[in-house]
């Protein structure tokens, strides 16, 4: 479990997080939903340890926070490498055995339907393919905690389905997943819980069973009214 207690974060004259309290269960997929500027990215950056909260605690219980996979808003990629070269570099930096990582790279390229783009320079890839590459780099070392900030930008429906399969696969293998999104067209198929971040606090948390039987349009309309 990840236990977040009374988390506060301020940037200059703006109080972004105003006492966030949240429990995230191990091996679950927990969605943070809110409008732009609600503090989703700030919260996830605090969980990752990329920025330090002003007040409050983040406790990791039975989760190795050092085995972390991250996808943040901007694609942190190396443009002059091909997709395959980049993943090989990531695997070598993470000290993954070569025989193993060759198989892993091939698996993800097939799973995410990269095709010939695996040998394309990153600077020439589409936004959606870069998003898939970023996700692959974040999970190839089998993290215990996966933090995804708007990971679906630029994905078409086929790529979205492939990406959701990868995320669900990670959760099924014991990984705890926290993701932020403003999209609602897939939530019922992936989430275990969803928390509304509003005015710097968690306004409400819903279990996936709350949305059982609801159509995607109904879920979207309901959630938009909550923020």
Automatic annotation (TrEMBL):
Q: Which UniProt key words apply to this protein?
A: ATP-binding, Nodulation, Nucleotide-binding, Transport
Q: Sorted alphabetically, which SUPFAM superfamilies does this protein's record hold?
A: P-loop containing nucleoside triphosphate hydrolases
Query: By its UniProt entry, which Pfam families does this protein fall under?
Result: ABC_tran
Q: Which InterPro entries match?
A: AAA+_ATPase, ABC_transporter-like_ATP-bd, ABC_transporter_ATP-binding, P-loop_NTPase
Single GO term (MF): ATP hydrolysis activity
Domain ABC transporter: from-to ranges: 2-224
User: Does the record's keyword annotation contain Nucleotide-binding?
Assistant: yes
| Domain of life the protein comes from | Bacteria
Q: Signal sequence span per UniProt?
A: none
The reply on keyword Transport is yes
Q: Which family does it belong to?
A: Belongs to the ABC transporter superfamily.
Kindly provide the name given to this protein in its UniProt entry. ABC-2 type transport system ATP-binding protein
């Amino acid at each position: 479990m990840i236990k977040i207690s009374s988390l506060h974060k301020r940037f200059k004259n703006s109080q972004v997080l105003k006492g966030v309290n949240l429990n995230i269960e191990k091996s679950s997929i927990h969605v943070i939903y809110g409008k732009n500027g609600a503090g989703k990215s700030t919260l996830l950056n605090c969980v990752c340890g990329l920025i330090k909260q002003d007040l409050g605690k983040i406790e990791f219980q039975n989760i190795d926070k050092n085995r972390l996979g991250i996808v943040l808003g901007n694609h942190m990629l190396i443009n002059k490498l091909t997709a395959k070269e980049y993943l090989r570099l990531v695997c070598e930096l993470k000290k993954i055995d070569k025989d193993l990582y060759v198989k892993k790279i091939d698996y993800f390229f097939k799973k995410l339907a990269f095709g010939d783009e695996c040998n394309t320079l990153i600077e020439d890839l589409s936004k959606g393919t870069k998003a898939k590459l970023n996700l692959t780099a974040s999970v190839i070392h089998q993290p215990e905690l996966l933090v995804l900030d708007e990971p679906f930008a630029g994905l078409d429906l086929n790529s979205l389905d492939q990406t959701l399969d990868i995320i669900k696969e990670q959760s099924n293998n014991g990984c705890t997943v926290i993701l932020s999104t403003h999209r609602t067209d897939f939530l019922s198929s992936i989430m275990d819980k969803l928390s509304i971040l509003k005015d710097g606090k968690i306004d409400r948390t819903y279990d996936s069973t709350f949305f059982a039987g609801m159509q995607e349009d109904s879920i979207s309309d309901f959630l938009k009214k909550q923020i």
